[in-house]
Amino acid sequence: MKIEKKFFQHLRKGSFFKEHEKILVAFSGGGDSVSLVQLLLSVQNVYHLDIHLAYVNHDLRKTSLEEERFVRQFASQYNLPLHVKKWQEGKKLTSGIEVSARNFRYDFFAELLKREHFTKLLTAHHADDLTETIVMKLIRGSHFFRLSSLSERRKFQHSELIRLLLPFSKSELEEYLQEKNQHFIFDESNESSKYFRNRVRNEVLPFIKKENPAYVQAMNNFSKTNEYLRQFLQKTAQGFFKENLKKNTLSGLKFLSREERFIYLMMFFENRLEINKHQLEETLNLLEGKQFPKEVQLTNGNILQIHADNVTIL
C-alpha cells in the first residue's frame, strides 16, 4: 500500500529505531492509534520491534467496557503485550476532565517506561492534530515558543516520545483503515461542542479549509519553520545561558534591550513554568523600574522575584 511505503521511507529518513527495540504505543483503539500499530506491523520484517500497547480505560462512557474488550481482542489478534489501567476519578470531576485524564495517561506511560525499560513511547498524533493545536494556541494567544509543542520527537522521562504520524493526514489514515477493512473505536465525544478542541475541529477548521483546501500542509510547514527558528534561537543563546543561568535564576538582564529580554525570558521559562502574556509584560515592565526587589505572583503558585539584573523562580 502507498501509505505503508511512505511510512517506511519516513522511518528510514528519520532513523527512529534500531532493530529489536522495545517500544510502547499509547493505544486507545481509535482510528489513529490503530493506524499507527498497523503501520508498525507493516515494517516488522525489517525492524523486528518488541511492540507493547498501553491502554487507559477512562470509564466515562457507557461503552467503556465494550471499548476495552475491543482493545484486548486487537492486542490478542496481533499477539501484542497489553498494559491496561482504569481511571477511577473521572466521574467525580465536574471540570478540567481533559487535562486530568491526560495527566493520568502520561503518568501511566511514565510508570511503564521506567518499570518495563522501554526505549520509546509512541503516540498517534497526526497532521490534523498538529493543525488543531496550532489554531487553538493562536486563539488563546500563546507566544512563539509554545506554538511548536507537537514536535516529532522529544525527551520523555529517561526515554523518548515520538510522533511518527505527523506527516500523515487524518484522511490518509482513514483511507488506509478502509483498505485494510480494519475496525476501530469511534469516539462520539469527538463530535461534542463541549470541548474546545472539538469546536476548533468541527467549526473553525472547516471555514479555514474553504479559504485554503491545503491548510493542513500549510500549517505543517508553518510548524516546521517555527521549530527551526526556535532551535536556532536556542543555539544562538547557549553562550548567554552558560554564563548567566544558575538553577532557577537568570542574570545578565540589566543591559539588554526589551526585545532581548523577551526572548531570553521566554527560553528561560520554557519547560520550567507556565506564564501568560500579561505576566510576562509585567515582568518586563518591572525590570525597567528602579526599585527592587519586586515580585510577580503566578497562577500556578510560583513567584517571580525580580531584581535589577536577574529573575528568580521561587
TrEMBL record:
Its EC number is 6.3.4.19. It catalyses: cytidine(34) in tRNA(Ile2) + L-lysine + ATP = lysidine(34) in tRNA(Ile2) + AMP + diphosphate + H(+). SUPFAM superfamilies: Adenine nucleotide alpha hydrolases-like. Keywords: ATP-binding, Cytoplasm, Ligase, Nucleotide-binding, tRNA processing. The N-terminal region contains the highly conserved SGGXDS motif, predicted to be a P-loop motif involved in ATP binding. One of its GO terms (molecular function) is ATP binding. It is found in: Cytoplasm. Belongs to the tRNA(Ile)-lysidine synthase family. Ligates lysine onto the cytidine present at position 34 of the AUA codon-specific tRNA(Ile) that contains the anticodon CAU, in an ATP-dependent manner. Cytidine is converted to lysidine, thus changing the amino acid specificity of the tRNA from methionine to isoleucine. Its main location: cytoplasm. ATP binds at S28, G29, G30, G31, D32, S33. GO terms for cellular component: cytoplasm. Residues 22-203 form the tRNA(Ile)-lysidine/2-thiocytidine synthase N-terminal domain. It comes from Pilibacter termitis. This is tRNA(Ile)-lysidine synthase. It is an enzyme of class 6 (ligase). InterPro entries: Rossmann-like_a/b/a_fold, TilS/TtcA_N, tRNA_Ile_lys_synt, tRNA_Ile_lys_synt_N. Pfam families: ATP_bind_3. The keyword Cytoplasm applies. GO terms for biological process: tRNA modification. The keyword Lipid metabolism does not apply.
